[in-house]
Design goal:
Blueprint (H helix, E strand, L loop, with lengths): L2 E4 L5 H12 L3 E6 L4 H13 L3 E6 L5 H10 L7 E4 L14 H22 L8 E5 L14 H21 L5 E7 L12 H4 L8 H11 L11 E4 L11
Parallel strand pairs: 1-2, 1-4, 2-3, 4-5, 5-6, 6-7
Helix pairs in contact: 1-2, 1-7, 3-4, 4-5
Length: 241
Amino acid sequence: MKRALVTGSCVRTGRAIALRLARERWHVCIHGKTSSLEDAEETARMCREAGGGASIHLHDISCLEGCEELVRSLDIPSLDLLVHNVGIYATGALLETTPASWDAILRTNLDAPLHLNRMLVDRMPVGSSIISLGYVGLGKLAATTRTGAYSISKTALLLMTRCLALELGPRGIRVNMVSPGQLENSVDLPEDIAVRVPLGRAGRIDEIAEAVCWLASEKASYVTGQDLEVAGGLMMALRGQ
């Protein structure tokens, strides 16, 4: 049975990814904060019912110590997939971002993936994958006054993805990103989403999970260093944000 660690997999998009992998008979290491036990147990139950395996690992990975604790808790000989789903989404003007918020965003969205990559890569065999969750439009380096700190952290994560694709390619490890657009459960879903998106609707979390599952599969065995946008065509044309 292949093994995956999906950070932030107790609820929402992370849970959808875990369940999609479980339907392909993966063992999923379910991660969340220490306060997420009830949600984690529900996700684990759903994964087992879907035909996969599940284990629960509750650690705060916004700090180096938490990342180390998570890695120590993984009682598995190898890891075939590492999904960086955890992230802090913050709105507001960049210069209004407090030092505490800035530090929290970067520690969670950027530092944690780097620490986990460094700590786990030696457990990852040829053919394994690292997949990060981004956001539509990162490759265009579009400036915004609405989500400056978040956008900076995710843009840096995209560059990390591409750097690691170069570094880990010779080891047979693929590194990619999946970038959603506006989803049905987005906290700031605009009322005119059908007008903004060429496909005329918001995305679903199961569509994000499907993209992650595809990138982790043999069907994508020659795909690395890519940012796969699952956004219905949102931001194909640059517009003021």
